[in-house]
Structures are given as C-alpha cells and as structure tokens.
Amino acid sequence: MNRLLAGLPESARAGRRPGVAGPAVRLVIALAGLALLAIPAEHDPVWTTLTVIGVLVAIGSPDQAGAGLGLGAAIGGWFAAYGWDGTPPLADVVGFALALYLLHTATALAAAVPLGVRLRAEVLRRWLWRCLAELAVAAVLGAASYGLGRPSSSGTLVLLGLAGVLLLVGVPVLLLHRRRN
Amino acid sequence: MTAGPAGGGPVGGRPAGGPASGGPVGGGRPEDPAAGVRWSPTVALGSALGSVALLLGFAVLLGRQDLLLLALPLAVGTVLPLLNRAHQLPVLRVRTGAATLFEGQSSTFSQQLSVPDALDVIRLRTHLEGWIELPDGGQDFCTAAGPGAEIGFEHRLFAPRWGRGRIGRVGITATAAHGLLRARLTDPAMVSVATIPLRAEFSATDVVPTAVGLVGGHRSRRIGEGVDPAGVRRFAAGDRLRRIHWPVSLRTGELHVTTTYSDRDTEVVLVLDSAVEVGLSAGSESASNLDIAVRAAASIAEHYLRHGDRVAVLDLGRAGRPVRARTGQAHLFRILDLLLDVRTAPVSELAVGRALARIPSRALVVVLSPLLNTAVAAEAAGLSRAGRSVLVVDTLPADVRLPEPGPWLELAWRLQLIERSNLAAALADHGVPVVPWLGSGSLDQVLVGLSRSARAARVHR
What we know:
Radius of gyration of chain B: 33 Å
Number of domains of chain A: 2
Largest sheet of chain A: none
Order of helices and strands of chain A: HEHHHHEHH
Structural class of chain A: mainly alpha
Oligomer: heterodimer
CATH superfamily of the largest domain in chain B: von Willebrand factor, type A domain
C-alpha cells in the first residue's frame, strides 16, 4: 500500500498564460494561404491540394518545409491558372505577390515565436516595420520594371533575370566570404 | 513583466538573503560559451531562395513580367536582410534579488541583455528547477532589439514551497535577417535560491519530561538554583542569605530558606519520517505530509533553540546524516538547511535502528510521521520501551485526494487508514501519544502528560 501511495506526491504549478501573438501570426499565414488560393482565376486540384497541405504544415509546424511547399505549389497553381504565356491582370499579380510574401514572412516569424510564448510589442513593431520597408523597395523596383513596359523581345527581361540570379547567388557567396575573414 | 517590490513576504522577521547573480550567457567573445555558436540558415531562407529562383528562372525563360513582379518582394525580403544581418550574439546576465526566501515570499529576477547587432527576435527561455516560479511570464518570452541595445527585464520571482531552487540553463534563440538566420545557445549559468520553510508561530509549555544539563529554561525535578519554589526547609551551612524565608523564620524561631527547582535545558530530537509523501504539495494552498513535517520541525526547532535547548534532527530517509544536538541561532540555520533537502526516500530499517539507538536516554523524541509506515511506528514504540520520552506528531494532511480515484484504490486507502488507526492505538498503548500538528500549543497537553509519566516512572523505581 505504501508503494501505491508513494506514487501520490503531486505537485502543482501556476499555469502559464498563453500568448495571443503566436495564433495571430498563424492566422496571417492562413489568410495568406487563402489569398493564394482565391486570387488565380482557375484552380487546378493538384496544385490547390498541395498549397493547402503546405499552408497547413506551415501553420502547424512553421519550422518545417511547409512554407516552401506552399509557395512552390501556389506558383504551380499560378501557371496552371494562366498558362505558360498568359497575361494575368495587374491587380491579381500584385495581390498574389503580396500573398506569397506574407506567407513567407509570417511563417518565418511563426518559426521564431512558438505558440504560447509571450511576445513583447517591439518584436511585432520591428517586424512590421521591416516588412513595410521591404515591400516599399519591392514596389519601387516593381514599378520601375513595369514602367519599362512589356519588351518586344525578351532581351531586357533576360538581362533583369540574369542580374537577379547573379544577385541571389552573389549575396550568399559574399556573406560566406566575409564570415571566413 | 516588471516585478513588484522585493521581499514582499512578511514571514519570519528575517530579511531575505543577499542577491545572487549568474555569469554572462551568450556573446561572441572567445572566452564565452557561445564562441562556437554560428548563425545557421532557417527553412525560410531555403524556401525563399527556391521560390525566387523558380520565378526568376521562368520569368527569363518565358519572358513574363508578372513572374518578375511575383519574385520581387520575396527577393528583396531575402537580399536586404542578409546584407544587414547580425554577426554577434547577445550577452545575457542574470541576477536574483535574494538568494534566500521564505515560503510564499517574492523577490526579483533580473535579466540584462546586451545586443551588439540588431536582432528581430530574441527568445529567452529560463529553465527553473525546484519550487520557484516566474509567475508573470518571465520564464519564456520573446523580444527584439536594435544594434547596441542594453535591455533589462525584471520579473517577479516567487517561491511557493520550501526547498532548493535553481535558475539556470538560460536558452537564447536569436533570429536575425528577418527570420532567415538563427542561432541557439544554452548556458548552465546557475543561480541558486533557497526557500526556507514557513515556520508557524509555535510555542509550547516549558514542561519537558526530562530536563538535563546545567542551565536552561525548563524546570527540572531537582532542587537547585531556579525560580519555581519547591518548598521551605531549615537553614544549613552554605545557604545564601537572600534565600532566607523571613515569615517562616520569625514564626518558628529558626532560620528557614526557600528552595527552588533548578532550571535546566533539555535535548529535543526531531525524527522525520520521509518514507512516503501523501497529499498535494502546492505551497500555501495545500500541503503534503512532508510539507507539514518540515514546517512543524522548523517551528519546533526554532522554539526550543530560542529557549536555549539543544535540538537534533534525524531524517529517516537519510538516517546516516543526522544533525547532532546543538544550540544557538547558527544551529537553527543548520537545521533549516537540512530541511531544505528533505524528500521522499526509502527508509532503511537497519540504518534507522542504528541512528535511533544513538539518541540519548533523556532526550525528548518528537517523531513527525503520517503513520503509514509500520517500521517507523515500531521504532517509536521501541524507543518508548527503552525509557525515552517519545511523542508522535501526525503529519497526514486532513484531506488526501487520490490521484486516480477508483474502487480498488479507494478501498485500499480506506484499509490503510484503518491500519493507521490501529497503529496509533497501539502506540498509545505503549505510552507514545499521537497528536495532530495544529501549530502553537498543540504539544502542550502531551508534554505535560509525558512529564507526569516520567515522574511516575521515577517513583516506581
């Protein structure tokens, strides 16, 4: 009997108040996912399913590759909706770009802030401020590229694309070089 | 997250101990534990790079401007943060307002964060060991900081229950480059906090069964220097003149002196039965038998030590490490220090037998037990049979909630309670009174009774 009672020691701790920031960030992920599904004119069931799975994984476990799957599937859905040579409306393009960015950045924030952890206001303030700055830069670049108009030949776009790829490859290489030094 | 005033507990009258501080946690200096910690890319960086490459690649191949526009926010959100990324990790210093607290008392726990480079999210996760809490959410929270920031956080540190607590292993997770880079480091920078059991206002009669020694506060049965009058007798050579009882001397025509009982001290041995813990241990709200035993032991020890007696403590779970009988304030701290480490432990009958056999024959033995262990009750009865004055303080909580209520467990518990009642009755038959712990005055009647029975035994001999 005493052995039975030995299992009795119970301890009680004060409960921790769950934070609301974690669920709010996940709500942004869900809204961005819904926008990715809603904006294209047509829906392919395969890409839609993959996008939903990716967004759900991003909400449930932001540290996993859910956001990557969601982004890739949403881009696939974009191709499925407008074809390889389609011309989507500008509003759809801007809305879709914003949704892609929101899904990416909200998942990155959710991965850094687990559910139930208290979040101080400056984290959100700082994050939002950086989002706005990045979106502003992207808007300026986007407007500049849009102002070029649709090139008759794809030469300008090829140059821009090559510059972008070089930038994407060059930045990590430059960072690696600086870290070694 | 800002704490209330330190040392809020009104208990005990002794101020909380001095502050305790831990070393720096984090940082990029070579001597720091974080020296080997590197920034690592997150999944978000991979997915962003993949998406941008996909979009730009198809934009180039298909000559579509919309794909370039789709890639722009993601590309800017990847390149700009990486160009302005943080290089150094933050350095954290922790500090508590007090190293010693009483049960229910609060202090402060301060965290000073030095952030050399801007960080988007800094998660501070403090691992607490033992009965200490950070009730305002300071145990796990996220913050952000700009470059060169010095941020201080002050949390309320609450000690709900006696024991030793430690604040340590502060885990820092720093997220930089807008969630694209992350670094984790953990440092075992321990800060210890001792929580002293809450001692009830305890007082007991100054009557003890056997007063020994040369000086003290208890009236002994022997005639000598003291205060309590024992009688009047004829003057004899060596009697002090101030002891002459003038009314009797005048009435009888012969000098008579007043005799008094000598005041002597006693030795109190507190025996803690830590074989089993029953009940909910939740600070001031609910107490287990160990809580009651520890608090009662602290109260009784403080009372007798304050009166100049010698107190020894024997934890049956650690029978090989008794606190030997001493007196004084320093000895009280020694006892309290031992009580902090009381926890459930198997009771070795051999070790207990040896330890109890060393108890002096004239000591007052107070056994603090829930009477759920037959061996402890048998040892108490054996001590009484050997002529020692023994009393058992029942430490079983009034309301014991079974962890998994069920028909068999409830039946077993009822059987255990019946067995416990039989044990108490058997102990009473052996001259060992069993009293529940009720705080002040709860031992008075029993001590008077034990004193009478000790006198009666002397007469019969």
